[in-house]
Amino acid sequence: SPLHDFIHGLPKCEHHVHLEGCLDPELIFHLAARNGITLPSPTENPAYASIAALTTRYEHFTSLDDFLAFYFEGMAVLRTEADFSDLAWSYFQKAHADGVHHAEVFFDPQVHLSRGVSYKTVVDGFAAGCKRAEIELGLSTRLIMCFVRHLPVSSAQEVYEEFLSHEHFESELVHGLGWSSSEVGPPKDMFREIYASASAKGIPLTAHAGEEGDPTYISTALELGATRIDHGIRLIEDPELMKRVANEGILLTVCPLSNVRLRCVPSVEHVPVRKFLEAGVKFSINSDDPAYFGGYILDNYCAVQEAHQLSVMEWRIIAENSVQESWIPDERKAELL
Ligand code: HPA
Ligand code: ZN
To answer: What is the protein's major site of localization (predicted)?
Structure first.
């Protein structure tokens, strides 16, 4: 596309990427061998026959939960602090090559804790990757801890306490909180008490909502104190709520290739970027789980351009909103604009 160089050169901020979602099939097989972890046997699940078979299986997810089963199985190969730091570093190198200057990255500690890996191992490893990206690549970084909706609230409460007591929270590297995993099924407001506590402490809050779930998942997240919504594409089904989101300047972190791979939309043409632009709804464009969905952030930007043919002005608005709604001090925003 004629705007490709311009889009590559835009100063990008990524707000929606799961570090565990950057674990590609090659690294899954490599770390399984290195750490002596048995992957599902190919007789049980033929997807695990080879790196190629697993890669191909990822092209055929049928839903969010179908993807999540592979995502949680894959991350079981992560054991040591080095595994976590190497994974983060591999993401930051790709992001840097795509023109990302600031990245706010998710991680899912409950799932690691449930298989015997400590919060400290996970966070210290990811934090080391962040520090290296800041020093060697000039990126600014933030970690956002996600609660997962498929495990009991008591498990979320445990990691919330670890989050509050860990030195990286004090240092503001582990900066915000989110929730993710299965959307439809568990109670919409299952993290009400935790979010009330975190809100009172002034911790920035986001939430995965309106990906598979209807707009009431979005309004519930806002009611609980989220000031940002991850995905949020089903917002277009509620014009009143859409007005409110626009008026309050709530950022949606949209992930076009993810939406297609998880069959939330039939193609990128159906990701409502133009409706959001027309309604004055702020959004950023992100990769979500790039190792599973066939592309990093620049692939997502380019897919939006192919499908929607945005103007230079529209791209500038998207880039500027991405900077303005990042969870960074004003001085850093000024450097990025
Ligand atoms: N939705 C919900 N949970 C997730 C996702 C997602 O797109 N990616 C990783 N965990
Ligand atoms: Zn996500």
So the answer is: cytoplasm
Specify the ligand 1 atom closest to the Cα of 181.
3
Taking the whole predicted model, whether its pTM rises above 0.95 is answered as yes
User: Which helix H or strand E contains 226, and what residues bound it?
Assistant: none
Q: What is the CATH number of the domain that holds 130?
A: 3.20.20.140
Q: Which amino acid is at 225?
A: G
44 located within any domain? no
> Minimum-distance ligand to the CA of 211?
1
SS3 190: coil
The closest residue, in CA terms, to atom 7 on ligand 1 is 288
Q: Is residue 213 part of a domain?
A: yes
Q: pLDDT tens-digit profile of 291-315?
A: 999 999 999 999 999 999 999 999 9
- Domain assignment present for residue 51? The answer is no
Structural domain total, the chain:
1
Residues with CB under 5 A from ligand 2 (ion): 288
- Per-residue model confidence as pLDDT tens digits over 149-162: 999 999 999 999 99
The complex's ipTM? 0.97
Q: Is 335 exposed, middle or buried (0-12, 13-18, 19+ CB in 10 A)?
A: middle
Q: Give Rg (Cα) of the chain.
A: 19
Query: Measured in angstroms, how far is the CA atom of residue 180 from the centroid of ligand 1?
Result: 5
User: Looking at the CA of 144, which ligand is closest?
Assistant: 2
Pocket lining for ligand 1, CB < 6 angstroms: 18, 21, 64, 71, 180-181, 208, 211, 258, 288-289
Q: Which domain holds residue 192?
A: 4-22+81-336
Whole-number Å distance, alpha carbon 268 to ligand 1 midpoint, is: 18
